[in-house]
Write a structure and sequence with these properties.
This protein is an alpha/beta fold. The protein has a single domain, classed as Rossmann fold, CATH 3.40.50. The protein has twelve helices and eight strands. Helix 3 links the parallel strand 5 and strand 6. It starts with a strand and ends with a helix.
Length: 284
């Protein structure tokens, strides 16, 4: 994989540079880096795809200039897609915030996408609906409120070499360890990026942003064929929060809940996740 940069968008990304092959763009979430897609990239490459894994806006070496609300980030990702695949629709993968951004993109510009794979965060309207029935999710999401307190969270996240970030990983995916070298690379990125990654959450304080996003999500169902994957032991977003989300998809939709996996399901169960995604993309 080679590191490249789009000067028009300010987005840096990893690419296998198979420019003539169908494009798959893979969006990481918080707190993460493009390395998260390494194993999926190997299988997609073998499947004959051009894979692009950006550092999301706000994550160095991509631009640290905002805004970082999901709609604005989706527009930046679409600009990158238009640059890399101006005439052909693409396939998209999104985990965590990457899932949220992917949802905003495929709802607004369905003709630009052939298929989607979402992980870890279900359709946002399903999240809203299910939180009322499963209020314990509010306790799991307390970190989101913390991140909206700049003076406190900026200091807390960086304290003791990002110990809070490691605790989130271990809490969200119980029993899973990505390895010290993975954390070293992640911390290097965060050290160069803070506080921009937290501004995704702080955008939710804006009534305008929330209103515009809810208006978009309610404008119609997702019409792009989508597979959704979630870990049964996810301690960030409980699997119950995904229940009933099929009502928000009118194209082909498949949901897979994987046992013995947490929030970082694609790293914990790569064989099953990669097989499902590659198979879905091959069929669509």
């Amino acid at each position: 994989m080679h590191r490249l940069r789009s000067e028009s968008t300010g987005i840096s990304y990893l690419s296998n540079e198979a420019e003539d092959a169908p494009l798959v763009i893979c969006l990481h979430g918080f707190p993460n880096i493009p390395r998260t897609w390494r194993l999926l990239t190997e299988d997609l490459r073998d499947g004959g795809y051009h894979i692009v894994s950006p550092w999301m806006p706000g994550y160095a070496p991509s631009s640290l200039d905002g805004p970082f609300d999901a709609l604005s980030v989706a527009r930046m990702i679409l600009e990158l897609i238009d640059e890399l695949s101006p005439s052909q629709p693409v396939r998209i993968v999104g985990h965590d915030w990457g899932s949220v951004v992917a949802q905003c993109a495929i709802i607004q510009w369905p003709d630009r996408f052939r298929a989607a794979a979402l992980l870890g965060v279900p359709h946002i309207l399903a999240v809203e609906e299910n939180v009322q029935e499963y209020p314990r999710q509010l306790g799991r999401s307390v970190y989101m409120g913390l991140f909206q307190l700049p003076a406190l969270s900026d200091r807390l996240v960086k304290l003791r070499d990002f110990a809070y970030i490691e605790r989130l990983w271990r809490k969200w995916s119980p029993g899973f360890e990505p390895g010290e070298d993975y954390f070293d690379e992640l911390k290097l990125c965060l050290r160069s990026s803070m506080p921009a990654p937290l501004k995704y959450y702080r955008s939710l304080r804006s009534p305008r942003v929330v209103t515009e996003m809810r208006k978009l999500l309610k404008s119609g169902p997702i019409v792009v064929p989508t597979i959704y994957l979630h870990g049964e032991n996810d301690a960030c977003i409980a699997p119950e929060i995904a229940r009933g989300q099929e009502a928000h998809f009118t194209a082909l939709f498949e949901q897979v809940i994987l046992a013995d996996a947490g929030h970082f399901v694609h790293l914990e169960r790569p064989e099953e996740v990669n097989e499902a995604i590659v198979g879905w993309f091959g069929a669509h």
